[in-house]
Every structure is written in C-alpha cells, then in structure tokens.
Amino acid sequence: MFKKFQPSTDIAGQTPVKSSVQRSIRSAVLEQWKIEPETLEAVWPKKEGLVHVKCREHISIYTVRGEPIFFQHFDGPIYPTLRLLHKYPYVLPMVRVDRGAIRFLLAGAHMMCPGFTSKGGYLPPADEALPAGAPVAIHAEGKEHAVGVGITKLATEDIKKVNKGVGVEITTHIGDDLWAIKAL
Amino acid sequence: MPAKKNRDKSDKVPAAEPAPVASEEAEGPPPPEPKPPVQVLYCGVCTFPVEYCEFGEHITRCKEWLQEKDIDVYNKYYSEEALQAKIGTLSLEAQTKLEKDTAKKEAKAEAKADAALKKKLASQITIKRIERNKRKHVTAIHGLEAFGIDLKKAAKQFASKFATGASVTKNPQGQEEIVVQGDVSDEVLEMIEGEVGLLKGIPADNVEIVEEKKKKGGD
C-alpha cells in the first residue's frame, strides 16, 4: 500500500476531523482493536484533534500532533501504524512468519501461506481463528517486534488447509514509505 | 513485553526473548491507568528496530552505531552465541545465501549513496535574472533542493530578507524553483557564500548567475 508514497505528490490535503466523526472513529477503533479506552486515550487524547490526511487511492492517514497513528483504506478496517504497533503490540492479533520470509516481506511482498505453516511460523489456534479480511500484526521468527501490518486474505484455518498462495496481504512494513514518514 | 493471550501461546524461540527495553505489565483486571507503551530501540542509522538491522542496507554502520550506543544490546544481537543461535534456525545454505544477499545489498546502497553525494557536489545552482519590464526584474533561483534545502522555507527567508514577494513555482521544465521579486541576484549570491540561515553547505563555485532578457521582435 505504501510501497511508493511521496508526501509531496500523494497527499491531497489535510483537514481536522469533526468531533462527531472523531467519536465514531474512536468507537470503531475500540471495537476493532484489543485496546482499553485508557490506553487509547494516552495515544490519542480527547483534547487533541485528529487530523485526516487524505491520500491518493482512497487512503486516509490519521495523525495526532502531526504524528501518523492510524490509516485506513476506503471504508476498510483501521490499521495502526507500525510505530504505534511497536508500542502497543497487543492491539492486533498476531501471526508470525518464518525467518526465510522476512527478506521478502521487507521488500514488500505479500506473505504466502507456507511461511505461516512452517516451523518458524505461527497462526492462532482453531478456537481463535481469524476470518478473512482481518487486520493482523505480522511478527517474524526470532524477532521481538512486529515487522509489518497486514490483512488476512484467507481465514487462518484455510491458510492451514490450503497452504498455497497469498495468505496475508501486507499493508505496511518496516522500511516502506509510510515508515519513513515520522511526522506530517 | 506485554503479557497477552495470543503472545503467551506462541512458541517463542528462547534466543529472542524480550530485550531489556520491554516494559513490565501486570495481568489481571484491566487497570484504570493506561498501559505503558513498550519502548523500542530504533537504529540511528537505518531507523529499523535494532533487531531488523541485519536486513537493512547499512548493517556494518548499524553495528558500529549500536556498539557505541548500547553495548549490552549489541552483545545480545551480534555476539558469537547469538549468531550461532540464529544459524541454528536456518539451513546453512539459506544462511550463506542470505549473507551474500546482505553484502550485495550493502555494497549497492553504498554505491548509491556515493553516487548521490557526487551528484550533489556536481549539481549547479542557477540564479537567473529575468526581465519583466524594462526596469523590473524577478530573480529565479534553481537547484537549491539538491542540497537538501526546503524550498518553501528558503522562499520565506528570501521574502523576509528582501521584503519582497518570494514563491516556489514550477518552471516550464516542471522543476521547482524559487522566484523572488526584484533584482536580488547579487544579494542571493552573497547569502549563499555567507551561508545565511538555511542556505548551508553549498559550494560557491557551483553557483552561476545568468541573465534572461525579454525577447524582442527584430532585436
């Protein structure tokens, strides 16, 4: 999503978000993420207005005090930025890829099923299975911090069954152009 | 490291247990206090979390940086045992391939940085005096961005220095340049030589002043 992203050309404009819209975003975040209201309050204080940064291809980035904290594609799920995810790694369910896949992930490739089902990988067990289209934090074998944020293309149980093709699509990863943006 | 359900169940490799940067957190009823964020140490060279430096383009410099910054963390990732543990999780063949790849990538990045530096040193700055009217001129300054100068801010600086209008505009070639109202070419040259304000790190030899006259019919 952010493989090629130039703030100078890809940002259409910045607007402060209406407080009623902010309320709905806040409740959406609380619903979609595993985050307590208090923690969200620390990240995004009620008093600090959210700023909506409109980008090409229906991508919206939301910033607080100029710092991007989450982004959204069209009406899709709200993803945290990687820096936020590093601070609060539990907000998204976690999947893990094996070590061999890190290289490709950092080059921006989508994650294939075998990377999750092999020895170094990890998928949530059957009773916590994720449906397709769920935002996930992508961790890597032997690493402590998340390496990317993605969206499941197959339900996790299907990933185990099919074990072929794209399992998780990457929305942002360490070192991409969103990562390079520290403040907007 | 926040003790969370889905993390506890993961079969983590022991070698990768939390860095000393992890924060403590208590399980149990959700506390009214916000949970403290995990502190992540980011590399000062490649901006990645330090554990991902090995996949970056400047691994040698990253290593040096970390060694200086925090020797404990450095030992955790780059000591002999750590390297051994890492090899253990990967087949030997894949490991050598990865190493080769990294070395290649690093060399490439270095070459790229070198080329960029050369280009920067060779790039020209043109101060152009454009005739608007017989006695009126504007000054167009082109090429500042190659030296990492924020054009918008520089334009502001010119505007306040000369008390005239200054703006960033696209020239016919589609490149951005600063246009200052009035003939200020000599003053701008002086400013660049004197490294005033934002205008830092520009070799004065690279600056040239040209004049553009309005074209006239038979002249």
Automatic annotation (TrEMBL), chain A:
Gene3D superfamilies from the UniProt entry: 3.10.400.20
Entry's localization field: Cytoplasm
The keyword Cytoplasm is assigned to this record: yes
Main location: cytoplasm
GO molecular function: RNA binding
A Pfam family hit: PUA
Protein's UniProt name: Translation machinery-associated protein 20
Annotated source species: Rhodocollybia butyracea
UniProtKB/TrEMBL annotation, chain B:
Domain notes: The SUI1 domain may be involved in RNA binding.
Alphabetical list of InterPro entries matching this protein: DENR/SUI1_TIF, DENR_C, DENR_eukaryotes, DENR_N, SUI1, SUI1_dom_sf
UniProt signal peptide: none
Cited CDD domains: DENR_C
Key word Ribonucleoprotein present: yes
Record organism: Rhodocollybia butyracea
Primary site of residence: cytoplasm
Protein name (database record): Translation machinery-associated protein 22
Binding partners and assembly: Interacts with the 40S ribosomal subunit.
All copies of domain SUI1, residue ranges: 125-196
Family membership: Belongs to the DENR family.
GO terms for MF: mRNA binding; translation initiation factor activity
Highest taxon above the source species: Eukaryota
BP term (GO), one: translation reinitiation
